[in-house]
Amino acid sequence: EIVMTQSPATLSVSPGERATLSCRASQSVSSNLGWYQQKPGQAPRLFIYGASTRATGIPARFSGSGSGTEFTLTISSLQSEDFAVYYCQQYNNWPGTFGQGTKVEIK
Amino acid sequence: EVQLVESGGGLVKPGGSLRLSCAASGFTFSNAWMSWVRQTPGKGLEWVGRIKTKTGGGTTDYPAPVKGRFTISRDDSKNTLYLQMNSLKTEDTAVYYCTRTREVSGAISMLYDDWGQGTRVTVSS
């Protein structure tokens, strides 16, 4: 089973600033990597798939990059609605596995 | 708009059974792969099973922790997904989400496009 490791566990950022979240896979997952956002009391929501493709309705300030074992989710200018937990998920190998999440909080 | 509404969660004793349901709308249910994903504070998000479409064989798959205890089924006439959970253990305590699932070309596993609001299952004596 592939282990997904996210860092940092918590990221404190001021509104308007840039946030960079990392996700590392224990072995190559090619570009088969997704990012999900989860707000308190809500279900996760798919934000990015294929490492860099935004899902429908996701703002352009969200961008994903990487391939193989190293991936990044960048939020170019944080808005109030972006403060949440973000999870990466690999779907290249069986079973698909999730990281433990990065909480983006208001500084 | 895609809607997935889970029900059936609750408190059950270890060794007991529970059946979760997920009512789907806003898409052609019979054409969709569906999965259940659970979430716990300790283990995070964990896939617990998938069912393919009837035309795709209706095949089900499960991870090792639940294989032989959990069974996914679907009723396309009712647009409803089910998760039958038997021989429940304390470690099955979680919020269970119903998800519309995407098969991705070139990948072995799946993406989760849409999620319900979740239903909480507590296994405790």
TL;DR?
Chain A is 0% helix and 50% strand. With 107 residues, chain A is mostly beta strands.
Could you explain the architecture of this structure?
The complex is a heterodimer of chains A (107) and B (125). Chain A is built from no helices and 11 strands. Helix content of chain A is 0%, strand content 50%. Chain A is globular and about 35 Å long. With 107 residues, chain A is mainly beta. Chain B is an all-beta fold. Chain B is globular. The mean pLDDT of chain B is 96. At the A-B interface, strand 5 and strand 9 of A face strand 5 and strand 10 of B.
Offer a few descriptive terms.
heterodimer, A: 107 residues, mainly beta, 7-stranded mixed beta sheet, 4-stranded antiparallel beta sheet, 50% strand, globular, B: 125 residues, 11 strands
Write the layout of secondary structure elements.
The complex is a heterodimer of chains A (107) and B (125).
Chain A: E1 4-7, E2 10-13, E3 19-25, E4 33-38, E5 45-49, E6 53-54, E7 62-67, E8 70-75, E9 85-90, E10 97-98, E11 102-106
Parallel strand pairs in A: 2-11
Antiparallel strand pairs in A: 1-3, 3-8, 4-5, 4-9, 5-6, 7-8, 9-10, 9-11
Chain B: E1 3-7, E2 10-12, E3 18-25, E4 33-40, E5 44-51, E6 60-61, E7 70-75, E8 80-85, E9 94-103, E10 110-115, E11 119-123
Parallel strand pairs in B: 2-11
Antiparallel strand pairs in B: 1-3, 3-8, 4-5, 4-9, 5-6, 7-8, 9-10, 9-11
Q: Which protein chains make the most extensive interface, counting residues with beta carbons within 8 Å of the other chain's beta carbons?
A: A-B, 25 and 20 residues
Determine the fraction of residues in helical runs of chain B and give it as a percent range.
under 10%
Structural class of chain B: mainly beta
H/E topology pattern of chain A: EEEEEEEEEEE
**What's the overall geometry of chain A?**
globular
The radius of gyration of chain A is: 13 Å
Q: Per DSSP, what share of the residues of chain A sits in E-state strands of 2 or more residues? A: over 45%
